[in-house]
Amino acid sequence: MGPHGDLVVDGYGRVLHNRWNRDLPPVTSVRPGEVVQLLCRDALDIGEAARTMTAEGTLTIDLGLVHPLTGPLEIVGAEPGDILEVEILDVSPLVDFGYVAISPALGLFGSLRPELLAPLAAWSEASQLSDPSPGPAAGAIPGDQPHNSGAPFLQTFTFERGQNSGLASFTGVDTGRSARVPIAPFMGIMGVAPLRRGMYRTFPPDVSGGMGGNTDIRQLVKGARVQLPVYVPGAMFSAGDGHMAQGDGEVTGTAVETLMSVTLRFALHKHTVIASTRAVVPAADPTQLAMPAQMLEQGYYQTTGTGPDLMENAKTAVREMVDWLVQDQGVSLHEAYALCSVAGDLKINETVDLPKWLVSMTLPRGIFS
């Protein structure tokens, strides 16, 4: 039990599971209205090793260990056809550091060589069974890849243990350039047991119905209420993938990943069906709540991409933001890309100019002050 009598589920000291499976037994039962605290490992399950890991070390990460989850929790009285409502009471880090990893097989630009992603394709299929591609990540980018794009990189960020507002510190690995990034901690994964039988990877978030999963919705911070469809008796809820800071898009494939504590309270809406995750969130941009006035006063830098392909437009907007960060702020390409992932927000601004659309990225100018 926690210091105030709340139930504590420890997924920090040991891995409880990292696959969705409706047949997993619950680690505990929780009644609607009860408060429970979940202790969670980081997304890549490298923990303290991230403090000293080299860029090349990221290429040895075992993808089979990705997304350790805390759970499943049986919600007493939950039945298929109900809605499970998850109220987020608190999210705070268990340690004083987090990291961003850049890999040739992840993120917005990991698709420069489609064959690199081929082993991952099975994860997006309806039949995505466990370990379609077990073992370590792919090695270094092929030699014929233009400009060595997609080279690995690891950037750490520091903050206070238990800190859930304010700023995290950034000191660029390549250049030593300093910045302060606004934080808004949240869990990248919250979900219930899937509709179909089988063992499923944790991503993408469309495995077996609308059961949540690796949504990476940065608005699901303290004060949010998330609604999930229930597919199995007890719902079997799990959470993981704690993020201290993330922009909309999480363009490198990682946010500021860290080991996290999340405190929750559950409610049930009986005999009400929804097709996918819904939520009530406290702010469309929760990082604004963490930014001091002098940072807000400096506004945001914005870049855009336009054309008939939304994904290509997103890439253009990010490339332009990287260009601004490198040319104007003096950071390296890798540092710029990492900052875009944790503080840059991608948005679809308009869909009216058929057959072309416009995507933008914004990033707070004051992070370097």
Task: Give the arrangement of secondary structure elements.
Blueprint: E1 7-11, E2 28-30, E3 35-40, E4 69-75, E5 83-93, E6 97-102, H1 114-117, E7 153-158, E8 167-171, E9 178-182, E10 186-191, E11 212-214, E12 225-229, E13 237-243, E14 260-269, E15 278-280, H2 293-296, E16 300-307, H3 310-329, H4 333-343, E17 345-350, E18 357-364
Give a verbal description of the structure.
This protein has helices spanning 114-117, 293-296, 310-329, 333-343; strands at 7-11, 28-30, 35-40, 69-75, 83-93, 97-102, 153-158, 167-171, 178-182, 186-191, 212-214, 225-229, 237-243, 260-269, 278-280, 300-307, 345-350, 357-364. It is mainly β. A six-stranded mixed β-sheet has the order 1-3-14-5-12-15, with no helix packed on it. The chain has a five-stranded mixed β-sheet with strand order 2-4-13-10-11, with no helix packed on it. The longest helix has 20 residues, at 310-329. The radius of gyration is 20 Å and the shape is globular.
The largest sheet is: 6 strands, mixed
Number of strands: 18
Order of helices and strands: EEEEEEHEEEEEEEEEHEHHEE
| Helix content estimate | 10-25%
Arithmetic mean pLDDT? 88
Sum up the structure in keywords.
369 residues, mainly beta, 6-stranded mixed β-sheet, 4 helices
Task: Give the structure's gist in a few sentences.
This protein has 369 residues and is mainly β. It has helices at 114-117, 293-296, 310-329, 333-343; strands at residues 7-11, 28-30, 35-40, 69-75, 83-93, 97-102, 153-158, 167-171, 178-182, 186-191, 212-214, 225-229, 237-243, 260-269, 278-280, 300-307, 345-350, 357-364. The strands form four sheets. A six-stranded mixed sheet has the order 1-3-14-5-12-15, with no helix packed on it.
